[in-house]
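Quick one: structure tokens for this chain, please?
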Amino acid sequence: MRPAHIALAALVAALWGVNFVVIEVGLDHFPPLLFSALRFLAAALPAVFLVGRPKVAWKWIVGVGLALGVAKFGLLFTGMDLGAPAGLSSLILQIQAVFTALFAFVALGERPGKVKAAGMAVALAGIGVAAVDEGGGGPLVGFVLCIAAAACWGVSNVLTRRASPSDALNFMVWVSVVPILPLLALSLLLEGPDRDLAALRGLDWAGVGVVLYVAWVVTVFGFGAWGWLLRRYPASSVAPFSLLVPVFGMSSAALFLGEGVSPLRWCAAALLVGGVALTSLSRGGGRASTPTAAGSAAVRV
């Protein structure tokens, strides 16, 4: 890769990592499900009028929209709202690579090779260490919801693989349309209209800023840049940069939110990142990941 493109890949990873701090700030302004709905509303409009008609079947757009937008982000934002730290959340979500490999084996018959299986075991050991660390002083419910969010991310990755969209940006913009109404309905039902109205009435520039960051910077720019890199280079050259996301996530959380990183959490990070690297980058067993699948696995944070 050219130095400028390496810098772009690292920049995108940094923006995605810092995103967890921005989400934490956003949760001070909005209930989690409403916040997630606003994120997709801002990402979809006006982009949906600029990317053209959908280029894959609606069943894949709806399926990915529900798995990724409603389930994954609803669980992630709720888990963080219940106390899952931003840095730890950025780390835990990387277990999606293991779930993706497991679901691809079940749904697509992609049998993992020995190296990939070893990577999955190492990553799961990292989750175990993180659970021990979190159980010693953090909210386990939020931790479990983040793991569930990673599992839903794995489902969406497999659905994206099946969809095989020729235009990844067009696909993800249309996917962003799907979660808006379900998330708004869930927010009204579970968080209540009074809480939602209070958040909207109290909207300030900080609240607008966090919504625009997670929608335009993380989703539109981040995904667009990542997809552009994947069109120019093999996925095996671009995908490793996604392993920088938890590094930036934990570092920015420590810097801006004052989150401490215990020795156990560093150990969990080393195991998770190492295991995900083996799981994601191994070519043994099954088909090699397509650029689209590799890109979707890392982009939506």
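The two ends are 24 Å apart (CA to CA).
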